[in-house]
Amino acid sequence: MSVQTFIYKNTNISYTDEGKGVALVFLHGFLENKNLWKEVVPDFTSKHRVICVDLMGHGVSECLGYVHSMEDQADMVFALIHHLKLRKITLIGHSMGGYVALAFAELYPDVVKRLMLVNASSRADSDERKQNRNRAIEVVKKNATAFVSMAIQNLFSEEFAQHNQSKISAFKKEALQTPIQGILAAIEGMRDRIDREVLLHFSPYPVMILGGKNDLIVPLETLREECENNETQLVEMETGHISPLENPQKVSETLKKFLHQ
Ligand code: MLT
Fold first, then answer.
1. For residue 4, how many other CB atoms are within 10 A of its CB?
2. Which of 11, 58, 168, 189 has its CA at 20 to 30 Å from residue 69's CA atom?
């Protein structure tokens, strides 16, 4: 796997680029990085060009500012796609990566072939959620390590946590590498993101949402409501919030079906 760097507005962006064929672009979520997809990517590289990006302020990509809006991240992804000379892409976004994918789809609809949201809602934060984000900002400023450790406890289904402590520890170790500026910029960006539910009703490209029955961050109930009365397909998994880590096989299988429809 070759890791490459793209310079966007004087900011180093790290990504991987493998395989040949119709392009798939994978975007990770909050406190994650492009490795999130490492068990999914090999299922696609024989037929697709697969790009995994470290969003700004995450992984080894640098921060661009003190707030990274979903649109800022989408603009960066568009610049990368332009740099790679890709004309149409299937975008797969996990959680915050899904919010970025939605912003991208709104800003650059002509580039989108398909959109897959994994554990991600198209709705904006409720007022209560926004207040929780403000509280989170204060905790991060005081003790980012404590914040990350706490945040990670809520991410996995009990079933997965019982048998996969080593995977969770590895995930936590990587999450702890996220720079404080990146964490704060992402929390503010997520808090201020706009509602994009309308895209599920009027998108010219197929949309699929993958939800986890044990997801405490993006509840399946909300996703069910969002997928009512529109063409969006909802696939329900027995996972918590990090479906690509809990069940990469099922994520791959579902994405393959989606690509063949
Ligand atoms: C994520 O996993 O990307 C975030 O936790 C999503 C969120 O907080 O809304």
1. 12
2. 168
| Cβ < 6 A, ligand 1 pocket | 29-30, 95-96, 190, 217, 241
Q: Which atom of ligand 1 is the closest one to the Cα of 98?
A: 3
> Which tens digit of pLDDT belongs to each residue from 49-92?
999 999 999 999 999 999 999 999 999 999 999 999 999 999 99
- How do strand 3-8 and strand 22-27 relate by DSSP bridges? unpaired
What is the 241 CA–ligand 1 centroid distance (Å)?
9
What gap in Å lies between CA 152 and CA 156, rounded to an integer? Answer: 8
| CA-CA-CA-CA dihedral for 77, 82, 85, 91, to nearest 10 | 30
Residue 35 is given by DSSP the state G
Q: Is 229 helix (H, G, I), strand (E, B) or coil?
A: coil
Residue 87 main-chain phi, psi, to 5 deg: -95, -45
State which of 36, 73, 96 you would mutate to test the pocket of ligand 1, scoring each by most atoms of that ligand within 8 A of its C-beta: 96
pLDDT, the chain, mean: 97
User: Residue 1: how many CB atoms within 10 A of its CB?
Assistant: 12
